[in-house]
Design brief:
CATH superfamily of the largest domain: Class I glutamine amidotransferase (GATase) domain
Number of strands: 19
Pfam families: CPSase_sm_chain, GATase
Protein name: Carbamoyl phosphate synthase small chain
CATH architecture of the largest domain: 3-Layer(aba) Sandwich
Pathway: Amino-acid biosynthesis; L-arginine biosynthesis; carbamoyl phosphate from bicarbonate: step 1/1; Pyrimidine metabolism; UMP biosynthesis via de novo pathway; (S)-dihydroorotate from bicarbonate: step 1/3
Structural class: alpha/beta
Order of helices and strands: EEEHEEEEHEHEHHEEHEHEHEHEEHEEEH
Shape: globular
Number of helices: 11
Strand content: 25-35%
Largest sheet: 10 strands, mixed
Oligomer: single chain
Distance between the termini: 55 Å
Number of domains: 2
Radius of gyration: 20 Å
Subunit structure: Composed of two chains; the small (or glutamine) chain promotes the hydrolysis of glutamine to ammonia, which is used by the large (or ammonia) chain to synthesize carbamoyl phosphate. Tetramer of heterodimers (alpha,beta)4.
CATH topology of the largest domain: Rossmann fold
Keywords: Amino-acid biosynthesis, Arginine biosynthesis, ATP-binding, Glutamine amidotransferase, Ligase, Nucleotide-binding, Pyrimidine biosynthesis
Length: 366
């Protein structure tokens, strides 16, 4: 396998910046929006998180692949990122529990990557210039040819992607005789969210993105609704905004995470916007302003809710605020059992400071 790492590869950004490195994974070409994740561990959870669909991921940790790939540590059935950029690509791994190397895994899933890149320089560039489209190739090394290909890639702004990653068939998770029944609108749900529900005596039924409220209600008569995380621009999803509005009108408890948070805001006439750089990593401090308590959170989003609109709204109130940039990280609807957070309380591999939100949702269904 090691001879693959010797082949050259090129990373070209939309603003014309070029990085040269070595091929990682499958030999080929891939495009997407480039962004970075600051997590020190959990690369496999990042690769398989549906919220990263259509994105080229820059790993800020220096070593990727060093603890191999373990089959049970996935957040979905396949790799979701469009490509990987890293510094050290470690094919040899050092963990007994691992099932295979990162190179075998990437080849199996047709993932194109580039290693031996100065990721510190690259991240500083993206941090200053903002998220933008990029192309990685280990088959075309001519920069002009890559520029022509990159010019055809659509912007993430206005892109609806959830219906592409959502389940095609409904399925259930957990024990049928559990105390609570939760309908999950799958916009790119992570497996660990479902595990957290199962741990709390919930029988969940997962529905494709475009399922209507009426269909879920008639089919499952759930005790509450969960609106999942997912990729793309929330404002390009009128079908999901409509579903959220109907859940709110039904007065049933509702919990939203990430994209689900943005949709709850949109359903209450609060606009969303594309962020200059999103929040992606395992170390973002968030303050719960209701109980005056700080939690360290796992985050993954490129869109956010418009702060001024939330603060001036008479329909919702702020529950959580990001301590790095003061962005709104959580809201609840006044007079209803509906709330949401922008971050990931199910955070796998961690931190676990925010798991209480699942308990809050369960308590609202009692």
């Amino acid at each position: 396998m090691n001879h693959f790492t010797k082949l050259p590869a090129v990373l070209l950004l939309e603003d014309g910046t070029v990085f040269h490195g070595k091929a990682a994974g499958k030999i080929g070409t891939t495009t997407g929006e480039i962004c970075f994740n600051t997590g020190m561990t959990g690369y496999q959870e990042i690769f398989t998180d549906p919220s990263y669909f259509g994105q080229i991921m820059v790993a800020t940790n220096a070593h990727i692949g060093n603890y191999g790939i373990a089959n049970e540590e996935v957040e979905s059935e396949q790799i979701q990122i469009a490509g990987l950029v890293c510094k050290n690509y470690n094919i040899a791994y050092s963990r007994k529990q691992a099932d295979e190397s990162i190179q075998d895994y990437f080849q199996q899933h047709n993932l194109v990557g580039i290693s031996d890149v100065d990721t510190r320089q690259l991240v500083r560039h993206i941090r200053d210039k903002g998220a933008m489209n990029a192309i990685i190739s280990s088959e075309i090394l001519d920069v002009e040819e890559l520029k022509a290909k990159l010019a055809q890639v659509p912007s993430m702004d206005g892109l609806e992607l959830s219906s592409q990653v959502s389940t095609k068939e409904t399925y259930t998770f957990g024990k049928e005789d559990a105390s609570y029944r939760v309908a999950v609108l799958d916009l790119g749900v992570k497996k660990n969210i479902l595990r957290n529900f199962d741990d709390r005596d919930v029988y969940a039924k997962v529905y494709p993105a475009k399922t209507t409220f009426e269909e879920m209600e008639k089919d499952f008569a759930p005790s509450g609704y969960f609106i999942s995380n997912g990729p793309g621009d929330p404002s390009a999803m009128p079908y999901a905004i409509d579903t959220v509005k109907k859940v709110l009108a039904s007065e049933k408890p509702m919990f939203g995470i990430c994209l689900g948070h943005q949709l709850l805001a949109l359903a209450n006439d609060i606009p969303t916007k594309k962020m200059f750089n999103g929040h992606r990593g395992l170390n973002h401090p968030v303050k719960n302003v209701i109980i005056n308590h700080c939690e360290v959170t796992s985050q993954n989003h490129g869109f956010g809710v418009v702060q001024e609109a939330v603060r001036s709204s008479d329909k919702v109130e702020v529950t959580h605020v990001n301590l790095n940039d003061q962005s709104i990280e959580g809201i609840r609807v006044k007079g209803k059992k509906a709330f949401s957070v922008q971050y990931h309380p199910e955070s796998s591999p961690g931190p676990h400071d925010s798991r209480y939100l699942f308990d809050d949702f369960i308590n609202s269904m009692k």
